[in-house]
Each structure stands twice: as C-alpha cells, then as structure tokens.
Design brief:
two-stranded antiparallel ribbon, mainly alpha, 2% strand, 399 residues, single chain, elongated
Length: 399
C-alpha cells in the first residue's frame, strides 16, 4: 500500500534472522500481519557446530587447540540448547551413577554423542545391549523439542573469536584448563538460563578420562604374543604342586612353579592389592574350569587349541586390559619420567637411561601417530595427566 493506493505484488521476501534480532521489527505495527515466522532450531550436532566454525574462521583454527578441546568448546555451546526433561535417554540408562565420574547428571554428553551417530565405548555392556532401534528413535524424536533456546550460532562464533584472541601468540596449544578459565571468568559467563557450571565440570572429567586412556594406551607396548604365552604357561602350571620345574606343553618353556610365579600373574589378572587368599581362591576356580571344561570338553572332545578355548580367551583379554590400565603406574612417582618427557627432543634427553628413553619416545610417538597430537602437544598432555594425578583420580577403572 502506497498512500491511498494498493498495488498487487507477486514477490515473496524471505529473511533469515537470529531470534535476538526480532526486537528490530517486533514492534513495527505494519509488519505484524505480514510476517510468518518459521522457527529453525539451533545446531545440536557438535560436529556440525565445528564445521560452522571452520567455515567462518578457517580450518586452521584447529591447529591452535589440543585434541578434543575445540570439540569441548562446541559441546559447551550445544549444552545450552538442550532440554534436561527428555525421558527417553533416562529410561534407557537405568543406573547413571555408574558414569558419574565422567558424565553430567542430565546425560547431555551421552545425548550429544547419540545425535552425532556415535555410541560411546565407555558404556557398560548392559547399556550397549539395550540400545536398540526403538531407544535410538525415541531419543532422536525428543531432539525436535530442543534447539529453540541457548547460545545462537552468531553468539557462538563471537565467543570462539574472543576465546582464541585471548590466547593469541601463546607458545602453547589452547588447553582444557584455558577453556575452563574462559567460561569461569565473570565477563565470559553465559547467562544464568543457559550456563551450567556442573556441565563444564563433567565435560572436564570426561576429557581427563579420555586423556588418561590415550596416555596409558600409548605407553602400553607389550608384545601380545609374549602375553599370550604367559597365559598359556599359567594354565599349564596350575596343574602342578609348588616347588617343581616343568616344561610347558603349550610353549616349550621351562617353568619354575612357585608361589611367586603365580602371584606375579594373578596380581595382574586380579589387582596389585589382591590378598593371598583371594589369589588362591581365584586359582582354584581357574583349575576347576580348566579341568572340567577346557581339557575335558574343548580340547579332548572338540579338538580345540588352547588359544581357542573360552577360559584362555577370558584370561588373555583380562590380562591385556589390565596390563594397559596399569602401564602408567610404575612411572607415577618417578620424577625422572617427567623430566625425560620435558627433555625429549633436546640434548639433555641423552642423559636418561636407555629404557626410560625408549619408553618416553614410544609414548610420545604413539600419541602423535594414533591420537593426532603434535610433538609439543604430546608432551603437554603427558604432563597434564601426571600433574593432575589422573591415574589416582580414576584408579584402575577399565578402559
């Protein structure tokens, strides 16, 4: 309408605005009967959120961060857009307390992984089995009520720019501690509706857990054929009295069968703090299964090799897993280990023992090749794990 004249038009105008921009036209009376608003939810997939960062700021920004830290920035943003009142995931996870050391109480971290199509490997076997198509479908359906609140895409980019600028020029990679500090500083805190301090604490716990696993697994370098032979010899030796020396029918090795021999292996199969009576009870159970099932049924009737039997597989898997989990323990109170990590790549590295040089080199090279760290970042994450005493924090928890 122009003046007193009305003109017919055949044009449709589409405008893409952020919710906070409604204030610019919401009070304009002539607009009110001409606007049809279609709500587009905010991004709920943190991988898509990351892609948005890369699209706007360039992929090079990832080079400034330690692995997983930029992902966690995106997850903190996504958490402001989620709804804690979503029963599907709570009906699925019957006992969330099991995950309390690395999962937030609203289970946002788990939900985010589901939204990306990933099922975390730290879930228990029971929860993994119960995660069927119906559960997945119900969780995805509930996502339709989310994404209408929280930090917008534009706000997210502004926050990320501020965050990166704060540490521009630093010789070190941006770390999880820096991320925590950024969201803890009063000037950077998200508003009370969207900001959840408990979530950031939980995401830090999960980061710590995953960083610990990366370091432990990178340090683990046992020859698994050697470990296999140790389990075979153990199964052979449990049939004999203490104090005798026998040649293993499985490996051909001469074994001096003593309580010390059994204790060394059983302390790994159980734990380092297991008592003599616990180890003896465990040994009796193994002997019973070995004679009644492994020998009598699987080997004699089914013609299986020892490494094909169920008992061997159970013991071997447990042995390898515990070896990995305990790989860092001998170094926890070893100041030379920390010093050797700092000295790696310098002439002072040669002053350390041959074994220590081998272990540190192996550890750092694995962090680079397997987990994507740069050389300096690999050293940083090792020091982070040691200085935060993460092995003590998570104990001997399975990977």
């Amino acid at each position: 309408k122009v003046g007193l004249h009305e003109e017919r038009i055949n044009t449709l105008f589409l405008g893409l605005v952020n919710p906070e921009d409604k204030k610019h036209y919401d009070t304009v009376e002539s607009f009110q009967d001409r606007i049809i608003a279609l709500t587009i939810p905010y991004i709920l997939d943190y991988n898509t959120e990351l892609s948005n960062y890369y699209n706007k700021l360039g992929k090079r920004i990832a080079n400034r961060f330690m692995p997983m830290v930029l992902n966690n920035f995106a997850k903190i943003i996504i958490s402001t857009r989620l709804d804690s009142n979503t029963p599907a995931i709570k009906n699925w996870i019957k006992d969330p307390v099991v995950y309390s050391r690395y999962l937030d109480k609203d289970m946002f971290l788990l939900k985010m992984d589901i939204y990306t199509g990933n099922v975390p490997d730290w879930l228990t076997e029971e929860d993994l089995k119960s995660f069927d198509k119906t559960v997945r479908s119900n969780i995805i359906k509930e996502s339709q009520i989310e994404g209408s609140k929280g930090v917008s895409g534009r706000q997210s980019l502004l926050l990320l720019n501020r965050f990166i600028s704060k540490y521009e020029g630093s010789d070190y990679y941006i770390t999880m501690d820096m991320l925590n500090k950024f969201f803890s500083d009063e000037e950077n805190v998200l508003d009370s509706v969207t900001y959840r301090k408990e979530f950031i604490e939980s995401i830090t716990d999960l980061y710590d857990y995953e960083a610990l696993q990366a370091v432990k697994h990178s340090l683990y370098h046992y020859n698994e054929e050697h470990l296999s032979n140790e389990i075979k010899n153990y199964l052979f030796a449990i049939n004999y009295e203490l104090g005798v020396t026998k040649k293993s029918i499985y490996t051909g090795k001469m074994i001096n069968i003593t309580e010390e021999y059994f204790a060394e292996i059983e302390s790994i199969l159980l734990n380092a703090n297991s008592t003599d009576s616990e180890r003896l009870e465990f040994r009796k159970d193994v002997v019973s299964q070995y004679i009644s099932t492994t020998i009598a049924q699987e080997i004699q009737l089914q013609n299986k090799e020892i490494q094909e039997t169920n008992l061997y597989k159970v013991l071997f898997d447990k042995y390898v897993r515990n070896k990995k989990n305990n790989a860092l323990i001998p170094y926890m109170d070893n100041e030379n280990f920390r010093r050797a990590i700092l000295d790696y790549g310098t002439k002072d590295f040669k002053t350390h023992t041959k074994k220590l040089r081998h272990d540190v080199k192996f550890l750092l090279e694995n962090l680079v090749s397997i987990y994507g760290y740069e050389a300096q970042g690999a050293k940083q994450i090792c020091l982070y794990v040691l200085d935060k005493e993460l092995p003590q924090k998570y104990g001997n928890e399975d990977s």
